[in-house]
């Protein structure tokens, strides 16, 4: 196996090992509740979007 192939293989292994998100039951419930019933934007989130729009050109 070439050094590049070995590096790519190790990178794939590392990504696979960290790709899964393990949640406790409480965390899972909060996560899915937030997806189903999203809260509105608070002032900090609105400010972050405004700042992003100001800084990023499209």
Radius of gyration: 20 Å
Distance between the termini: 43 Å
Q: Total strand count, please?
A: 0
Summarize the amount of helix as a percent range: over 70%
Can you characterise this structure?
With 58 residues, this protein is an all-alpha fold. It is built from three helices and no strands. The longest helix has 17 residues, at 3-19. The chain is flat, with a radius of gyration of 20 Å. The model has no long low-confidence stretch (mean pLDDT 90).
Q: How would you summarize the topology of this molecule?
A:
Blueprint: H1 3-19, H2 25-36, H3 43-55
Key features?
single chain; 58 residues; 3 helices; 72% helix; flat
How would you summarize what this structure contains?
The chain is mostly helical. It contains three helices and no strands.
């Amino acid at each position: 196996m070439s050094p590049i192939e070995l590096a790519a293989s190790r990178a794939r292994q590392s990504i696979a090992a960290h790709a899964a998100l393990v949640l406790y039951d409480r965390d899972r419930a909060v996560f899915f509740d937030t997806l189903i019933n999203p809260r509105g934007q608070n002032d900090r989130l609105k400010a972050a979007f405004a700042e992003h729009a100001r800084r990023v050109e499209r």
